[in-house]
Design a protein that fits this description.
alpha+beta; 7-stranded mixed sheet; 13 strands
Length: about 375
């Protein structure tokens, strides 16, 4: 029975590390594009702003013609027609069962997001009518990256704020409501966004797991020994998770409400450093019994990281608090799901050398090395 659980735990750990290693290329998160679709009352046209990461466009279109590893504005601008054709071929808008026609309404531009530089397309979708159904089918990059998502802000005719939608491989076609979104729709969408972000936020997950790995052990005479009771382990987990939640909720709210703002590069670098510190602490047990303090202090930094993602998603001004509460609640739900999977396995295996040496020590060392590479990437903007 225990051998079977060991195998399952190994699979879980390997999957997490594989996801994290794949995330190294992006230094924070996988591929997203950002669209704002705006319809005006009395018109059947839809104004579209579409932000697509240059790294994604370079991967698909090989924009870096000279192969020097650096994209210039000239290289991007020369391929603007190809970029537009690629984008418009991967987004279909249909109104009243008739396809809308694409026209360019502005030159290609560049903008900076929290994870790099994006090409900005200004387009207009000319539709026959916006009086009945409006559907969107999104397929950008799905053929090369199944984890890619299209994050859409849809502003219906007469609406004062946007409805958030997420397009993925399993939700490639959706109906855009021609009436303003209700409170429940806003809360639900931002809650799902929060869950998704913590699950793909490899640095946040590894920081949390690094703090939780010793929760089923006790430090005695310089050695890690198995905890006697599950209750003690649960208590330690609750302290760490509560401190982390409280801290990042504070700074997420302050940043989202634009009360405090920190440079994204500084925040992301500090988050990577927090993972290194938390992982290395498991090798020496320096802060044993006070990991909740580390969770709180570094959790304040992670909150600013969450806020940068929320800013990219966009916040509806007439439902700002609702969206903020939904996103934060989603982060907590996703976080608790991770803990619920981790804790039973960890407690069951706590007395084995596999856990105390293989998972805690070797695993923490690997996490520290991975986070160190993230830190170098972010500090030097590689």
């Amino acid at each position: 029975m225990k051998r079977s659980l060991v195998k399952r735990f190994l699979v879980l750990l390997a999957a997490l590390l594989l996801q994290a290693v794949q995330g190294v290329a992006w230094a924070h998160k996988p591929s997203d594009s950002y669209l704002t679709l705006r319809a005006a009352s009395g018109s059947s046209d839809i104004a579209v702003r579409w932000d697509i990461a240059l790294r994604d466009l370079d991967y698909v279109l090989q924009l870096d013609r000279d192969g020097n590893g650096e994209l210039t504005w000239g290289e991007v601008r020369q391929r603007s027609d190809e970029i537009t054709r690629l984008a418009t071929s991967r987004l279909d808008l249909t109104a009243a069962d008739k396809a809308c026609a694409w026209v360019s309404s502005g030159p290609l531009a560049l903008d900076r997001h929290s994870d790099g530089t994006y090409a900005v397309l200004s387009l207009t979708a000319q539709c026959a009518s916006l009086t009945s159904t409006l559907k969107a089918r999104y397929s950008l990059l799905f053929d090369v990256d199944p984890s890619h998502r299209g994050l859409v802000q849809w502003i219906a005719p007469g609406a004062e704020s946007a409805q958030a939608l997420v397009f993925g491989t399993d939700s490639a076609e959706q109906t855009l409501a021609l009436q303003p979104a209700g409170a429940w729709q806003t809360l639900r969408q931002y809650l799902l966004d929060g869950v998704w972000h913590i699950w793909i936020g490899y640095d946040h997950i590894l920081f949390l797991l690094a703090l939780l790995l010793p929760s089923v052990l006790v430090r005695r005479e310089g050695q890690w020994t198995p905890a006697v009771r599950l209750g003690g382990a649960v208590k330690e987990v609750v302290k760490v998770v509560t401190a982390f939640t409280l801290a990042h909720s504070i700074t997420l709210s302050l940043a989202a409400l634009q009360i405090i703002s920190l440079p994204s590069r500084l925040v992301e670098s500090a988050i990577a450093a927090s993972v290194v510190v938390a992982a290395l602490n498991n090798l020496r047990g320096t802060i044993e019994g006070r990991r909740w303090v580390m969770a709180f202090v570094f959790g304040l930094l992670h909150g600013f990281g969450f806020a940068s993602v929320l800013a990219d998603l966009g916040l509806p001004q007439n439902a700002l608090v609702l969206a903020l509460v939904g996103f934060n609640a989603g982060v907590e739900v996703g976080q608790l799901a991770i803990v619920a999977v981790f804790l039973p396995f960890a407690f069951w295996l706590r007395a084995t050398n596999f856990y105390r040496v293989g998972v805690l020590k070797v695993g923490s060392l690997l996490v520290a090395l991975l986070a160190s590479w993230w830190l170098v990437q972010r500090l030097f903007d590689l």
